[in-house]
Each structure stands twice: as structure tokens, then as C-alpha cells.
Write a structure and sequence with these properties.
It contains twelve helices and 30 strands. The strands form six sheets. Strands 7-6-1-4-5-9-8 form a seven-stranded antiparallel beta sheet. Strands 24, 25, 26, 27, 28, 29 and 30 form a seven-stranded antiparallel beta sheet that branches. The protein has a six-stranded antiparallel beta barrel with strand order 10-11-12-15-14-13. Helix 1 crosses helix 4. The protein is an alpha+beta fold and about 500 residues long.
């Protein structure tokens, strides 16, 4: 059974590399080969060989199978030395601990507010003088870091910087002449291409697993914060606890991702691993190495993904692109002429379909960089060039207020009232007119579309409204099946809610 499995794997590999019988190993599997890991159209279109085909086949010579079997081992041999083990001692806070208590006999005792935790992870050597990229969660709260190289030498590690918004961190060791990783272009990855995951899972050092790129651009909701960037590469190469911070490598021997997370119901690999794209990790790591912090590109917009309902309302023809919900005041987007309800179709020629794609492309650029946007506005496509600013470190916090005199619109499932001067001030609303949403019914079209209590509706289908009477007049004229666009102000930001009228 094992022999049959090995033979099948060999056949698959040989078919993948399209090897001629007389190809020497040194020329076929050099790590600089441009087609290794990214097969050409000619290879992809090669006709499959039938099991009953008795004609001469390129797969039948033992030399072919041996050369194919060497592919993974040669790449692994190049990459294993650049992946290190990180052993950390962390001082973790005890959640919910008051620090003191009573044992029931009147004797007081004090419980520790923190506890020590031993953990491990992986890292990738970026430079010969000891800069190493890893994940934030590998070294966060660490009071001691020991970095062990592939040759068993160990060094104390010092945290250079961490970026929680991307999960990228950098550690430094005092060493010279280290092997450094060859970094690839993660924008060039192809779904289905072979990859290796290299790391130290479960304290099993220098472990290599193989799989394919299963998907790209995954948002798995593990990074907190309004400006968190999730644009993960998904792979079925086995990734387990301890692999975090390790390398995802293509068959050219280039690191194309930093292994970061898994989706699992058991705590261990289930074929759903996720890696930070190397292009993003490289930019963040470079900033941390140079400045100790990240200079992050900033456009100044809020976004919303396009559904079929949005596409109908905006006359897009089909769901595509990402809609600009709001353009922040005094932002680079405002200076560049971007408008609410513009649809971003592409950035620098790269099509975008999800919010996290836009965030990742902008986060991978530095302040002052120029980007080219392909937009859809008023049923026409157009191009605009924007110059990015630097992401500010602030957030808006506002309170809410309710006042009486309400109008109900049962078909949408909402109640509204006029915006009072006090209510506008409490919600930081500086617009004229509008209505305050005071209640949204459960399971109503309004709730399912994302409308919330304390939203201020300033416009319907891009036309300003002055009062609840004006709002009622426009809503009552809508026909069943129509899609109404509400311009909404919430917590200091502008949003657009698309509601299909029942």
C-alpha cells in the first residue's frame, strides 16, 4: 500500500515537471528556474496519460521518477537553514484576577496577577546580521526569547518591533554570516501551485510539509482593529502549533508567505493553514527594522463590498469592485477627488473584489507613494491617481441620544424621528436635516441590510432629506423590489445602506 502510494506520488510529480528522460538533475531543479512552482501554459495544457495507453511515455524511465522525487528535497535543503526556532518565556496576565481573596477562615491570601508561560514558534532569517521575521503572537508578552538556528547554535533574541495590525514582528540576534531567505513575489502565486511549509511544529524542529496554494486573499477575522489587514494565503500544507512565523515556500526556493494561523476544530492541522503574503510582510518588516514602527499608507476611506443588490442599484451590471462608503475629511482620498459611492475596480491594474484586498494593497505601500485607481462612477469607468498619506493614530468615539416624536415604516422595519440640535451634537453630526433611526425591528429588511438604532439618515438615493416628513414621502413612493440607498452617518463616519423594499 505504501509502495503504491509512493509510486503514485512520483507519477504526479513527474507529470507536473514535464521531465524529459535525459534531463540532468543540476539543470532541472536549480532554485532559480522560473517555471518551478509556476508551470507554464504549455505544461498546464499537457494531455493526461490514460491508464491503458501502451505508447511510449516520458514517465516510464526510473531516472524521471528519481529527478522528480528530488525536487522537494532540494528546495527543503535550501530553506531549512533559514528557518529558526523561537522558545519564549511569557509573563501573561491572569484574566479576572483581583489579586487577593479569603480562604473562608478569615485568612487572606494574594493570588498572582500574572503567570509565566513557556511557548515556541518559528522565524525566518531576513539578513545575514540576524534580523528575523516572525508573528506577533509568537513573541507578544515575552520576557525572554531564545533563538536556535538549524546548526543548533542558540542566541538571545531582542524584539525590534511588532505590528498587531498585520501580525508581523521582527526579532534581532547578535550574529554574523547567517544564511538569509530568498524572498519571492507573493503577487505572482498561482492557485494550485505546489508549496512547502517549513517550521517547528509541536517542538519538532526543521519540519517540512508539502501541499498546494488552496486560495488567496482570505479574511479570517483574527486581527482586531479598524485598520487590521487580513489578506492571507491559504494552503493545505500541514501547519500546526509551533509553525507560526515559519516559511511558506514555492518550488523556486523563495519564501512567499509567513505561516500564521490555522482553521481547526481540534487545535491541530485540518488542511486549512494561512500565511501572510511575503510582499506585505517584507514591507512591514523593513519598516520595523529601519524605524521600529510601521509607516503605513493611508487613503482615508470607508469601504463596503458589492452584492448583487448593490450592483443593481449602482447599475454595475454584475457584482464587482469595492464601494467607497465614506471619504474622510482632509484625507488623501478627498484631496485626490474620490467620492462616496465610487466603486474601486482595480488598484495599480490589480482587480479588487473585497475590502481586505484594498486594505492589503494600500498597507503594502509607503506614505507618499502614488497609486492608480480604476473607478466606476455614475455608470462610467474612469481613472484617478492618488498620493497616499500616513495612517493617523486616532479613532472617533461618540455617544448616543434618543428623543421622542417618531414615525414608523413597517415595510422596512424602522422608526425615525427628526434630528434635534442636542442629538446632533451628541452624535457629532454636523449635517443639515436628516432623521434619527430610533428603532430597528429584528429580522426586518433594515436590520438585515445593516441599519442600526442611532444611525442618522441624511439622504435617500443620493438626495438629501430635511425631516421625517420628507423621509416618509420618499419611502412611501418606493415600489416593491426596488433597492433604496440610504446615506447614513454613524459614530462620526459615513456609510451607505442598501435595502431591498419588500
Amino acid at each position: 500500500m505504501l509502495a503504491a502510494g509512493s509510486l503514485l506520488a512520483g507519477l504526479l510529480l513527474a507529470a507536473y515537471f514535464n521531465l524529459p528522460p535525459d534531463t540532468p538533475a543540476s539543470s532541472t531543479f536549480a532554485v532559480s528556474h522560473p517555471n518551478v512552482g509556476n508551470p507554464s501554459p504549455e505544461l498546464a495544457s499537457t494531455a493526461p496519460i490514460s491508464a491503458g495507453d501502451n505508447s511510449q511515455s516520458r514517465l516510464k524511465t526510473p531516472n524521471d521518477l528519481e529527478l522528480a522525487a528530488q525536487a522537494f528535497s532540494q528546495v527543503a535543503g535550501k530553506v531549512i537553514p533559514v528557518v529558526v526556532s523561537l522558545a519564549t518565556t511569557k509573563l501573561m496576565p491572569v484574566s479576572g484576577s483581583s489579586g487577593r481573596g479569603d480562604d473562608g477562615r478569615g485568612l487572606r491570601f494574594y493570588s498572582p496577577r500574572t503567570f509565566r508561560q513557556q511557548s515556541s514558534g518559528s522565524g525566518i532569517i531576513l539578513t545575514p546580521d540576524g534580523y528575523i521575521v516572525t508573528n506577533v503572537h509568537v513573541i507578544d508578552h515575552a520576557v525572554k526569547i531564545v533563538v536556535t538556528l538549524h546548526d543548533n547554535r542558540s542566541f538571545p533574541g531582542k524584539i525590534v518591533g511588532m505590528d498587531p495590525l498585520t501580525e508581523v514582528a521582527v526579532v534581532k540576534i547578535e550574529a554574523r554570516g547567517l544564511p538569509a531567505a530568498i524572498l519571492g513575489d507573493s503577487n505572482q502565486l498561482v492557485i494550485g501551485q505546489w508549496v512547502l511549509a517549513v517550521g517547528n511544529p509541536l517542538n519538532l524542529r526543521s519540519t517540512v510539509t508539502a501541499g498546494i496554494i488552496s486560495a488567496a486573499g482570505r479574511d479570517i477575522n483574527i486581527i482586531q482593529g479598524d485598520y487590521g489587514v487580513e489578506n492571507f494565503i491559504q494552503t493545505d500544507a500541514a501547519i500546526n502549533p509551533g509553525n507560526s512565523g515559519g516559511a511558506l515556500v514555492n518550488l523556486a526556493g523563495e519564501v512567499i508567505g509567513v505561516n500564521t494561523a490555522i482553521a481547526t476544530e481540534t487545535g491541530y492541522a485540518m488542511g486549512l493553514g494561512f500565511a501572510i503574503p511575503m510582499n506585505l510582510a517584507r514591507k512591514i518588516a523593513t519598516d520595523l527594522m529601519r524605524y521600529g514602527k510601521v509607516a503605513r499608507g493611508y487613503l482615508g476611506i470607508a469601504l463596503q463590498e458589492i452584492t448583487e443588490v448593490h450592483a443593481r442599484a449602482l447599475k454595475l451590471g454584475a457584482p464587482r469592485g469595492v464601494m467607497v462608503d465614506d471619504v474622510y475629511k482632509d484625507s488623501p482620498a478627498q484631496a485626490g477627488g474620490l467620492l462616496p459611492m465610487d466603486v474601486i475596480l482595480a488598484i495599480d491594474g490589480k482587480p479588487v473584489q473585497r475590502m481586505n484586498q484594498v486594505q492589503a494593497l494600500i498597507a503594502a505601500r509607503s506614505p507618499g507613494a502614488a497609486i492608480d485607481l480604476r473607478l466606476f462612477r455614475n455608470e462610467k469607468e474612469m481613472d484617478k491617481r492618488m498620493t497616499l498619506g500616513e495612517l493617523p493614530d486616532n479613532s472617533l468615539e461618540v455617544s448616543s441620544s434618543n428623543q421622542p416624536v417618531r414615525s414608523r415604516f413597517k415595510n422596512l422595519g424602522i422608526e425615525v424621528e427628526n434630528v434635534t440640535e442636542a442629538g446632533a451634537a451628541a452624535l457629532s453630526y454636523t449635517g443639515l436635516g436628516g432623521v434619527l433611526v430610533v428603532r430597528v425591528e429584528k429580522l426586518s429588511p433594515a436590520e438585515e441590510s445593516g441599519l442600526r438604532a442611532d444611525d442618522i439618515v441624511a439622504a435617500i438615493d443620493r438626495k438629501a432629506i430635511r425631516s421625517k416628513e420628507d423621509f416618509a414621502f420618499r419611502i412611501q413612493r418606493l415600489k416593491s423590489g426596488a433597492v433604496v440607498i440610504l446615506t447614513v452617518f454613524r459614530r462620526g463616519g459615513q456609510y451607505h445602506i442598501f435595502i431591498e423594499v419588500p
